[in-house]
Amino acid sequence: MNLSSSFPILSNYTYLNTAYSGILSTELAKWRTTHDQQLMEGGSEFRLSQSYLIETLRTNIADFFNAGISNVFLTPNFSFGFNTLLDGLPALEHFLLLQNEYPSLAYPVTSRGFKHSYVAIDENLEDNVMEAIEKCRPTVFAFSIVQYISGYRMNPEFIKKLKQTYPDLLLIADGTQFCGTTAFSFEASGLDALCTSGYKWLLAGYGNGFILLSDQLKNRLYEDRKLAQLPSAPFVKDKKPLAFCFEPGHLDTLNFGSLNESLNMIRKVGISTIAQTTQTLCQQARTQLHHRGFIPDYLADQKNASTIMSLPLNQQQVDQLAEAKILCSPRGTGTRISFHFYNTEDDLQKLLDVLDGKKI
Question: What is the pLDDT of residue 337?
Answer without folding.
Answer: 97
